[in-house]
Amino acid sequence: MAQEEHGAHAGVPLYAVFAVILSVITASEWAIFRFREPWGVSTPMLVGSLAVMSLVKFFMVVGWYMHLRYDPKMLKFVFLFSFLMISGTAAGLLMLMMHV
Amino acid sequence: MSAHIETNTGVDNRKFAMWTMIGSECFLFGTLITNYMINRNRAVAGPTGPDVFNIDLTTLSTFDLLMSSVAMALAVYYCKQKKLRAMQWSLATVVVAGAIFLGFQYYEFNHFVHEGLSLSTNIFGSSFYLLTGCHGAHVAVGVMLISTLLIKSLIKGESWFNDDVVEILGLYWHFVDVIWIIIFTVVYLFVYV
Hints:
The complex is a heterodimer. By secondary structure, chain A is mainly alpha-helical.
């Protein structure tokens, strides 16, 4: 299985590096939110930076901790199809409902 | 250790089933998050997010859940390496971190209710509690499942190395973490947007 091949490469050092990166991103999110006024962070910049950091964390956990990066295409399809479909539905609904 | 069963898809059926469940859970949480985003600014009475949220505390609980995911990844790794004690310590860390997260959530909900925000106060409260409560229920289920796994490995010792089961439960736990990553940003950090 691709999973087992991956098992030979991933180890404690990799997971430790990821733990540090996830912690730093979470701390950065908190700092940007907390100091948005003194730092003069505009709303579009706040939304953009927080969304990007959230997505990075999302794909790190899904790709490496959930091993989707190393899994067969079929599993990638099952997850990404569902995720993209609900994201599109959510975006459509939000655009419709925000003006109601 | 469980034997790998040959399937015509080339993927373990249980793993495929877990990914399919995770796919369906995407729809559940996607719907709840969309519901929250549509209704969060429509409350006509009572407190809303900016009045009650404590971002410092929620950041701590987010950090706690992220670290539990690291421990879960290590548990899967140690199980594959056949390192029983290390795997058990990792699983125990996941259980404790999950329980701490639930404690944070209990404290937060309790505080919000004292501030006057309950499930029936306004539409913000309804959609907020529905979303975060549903996530909390998933964490609680995960803590129970991983506790069961830990107890089983403690009882059976070296004869128990079921790396498929640990990996599949790991998928569930990481998914719960992934959902919180989205909730933390969309519900808490976008509170003034």
